[in-house]
Design brief:
mainly alpha, 8 helices, elongated, binds zinc ion
Length: 174
């Protein structure tokens, strides 16, 4: 059934507008969506961790260009840096990044693309995401369907448009 109502029940066919929910219930449904996003990111970062384990040295090799430049011991690069030459020019002229043109290992292209633009501590990022996920999963209450009174409501992310940041688990703190 085609519908533009973003709130759905996982048991009956009920579809509702978000405006028919209480603020707290809507927040709980949003938090479930955010929980899904967090779990997706955790899954991806576990692949990154696995990639590093399979490819020793990859952590040094695949990283954002600016880090490669800052950490370079090449005297020409040091010289360019102290002459205030823009990073983008140094990157282009010094041929610093053999990884850019190198063929990505099979199946890891998305990971290498991600590492080109992201710099972070993997263990810390994973830990913080896992803590967030635990809190969301523990604290966001289930919202029972007002029609069948059996199913739980969820936001259909194909239809639902995020209309603001979550207050997160703070809303449920007692
Ligand atoms: Zn229902």
């Amino acid at each position: 059934m085609r519908t533009d109502k973003p709130v759905a029940c996982d048991s009956c066919d009920t579809r509702l507008e978000t405006s028919s929910l209480s603020g707290l219930d809507y927040q709980a449904l949003k938090d479930r969506v955010y929980l899904g996003n967090i779990l997706g990111e955790i899954k991806f970062l576990l692949r990154v961790r696995d990639f590093f384990q399979r490819n020793p040295g990859a952590e040094q090799k695949y990283k954002p260009a600016f880090l490669t430049i800052i950490e370079s011991k090449d005297p020409k690069v040091r010289e360019a840096l102290s002459s205030d030459i823009p990073f983008s020019i140094i990157e282009k002229t010094m041929n610093l990044l053999p990884n850019v043109n190198e063929k990505a290992p099979e199946g890891d292209g998305d990971i290498i693309e991600f590492l080109k633009y992201n710099s972070f501590s993997l263990p810390h990022r994973l830990q913080s995401l896992c803590e967030d996920a635990t809190r969301f999963a523990r604290d966001a209450p289930k919202v029972i369907c007002p029609i069948c009174k059996i199913g739980t409501l969820f936001l259909d992310i194909e239809i639902w448009k995020d209309d603001g940041p979550s207050d997160g688990w703070i809303s449920y703190a007692r």
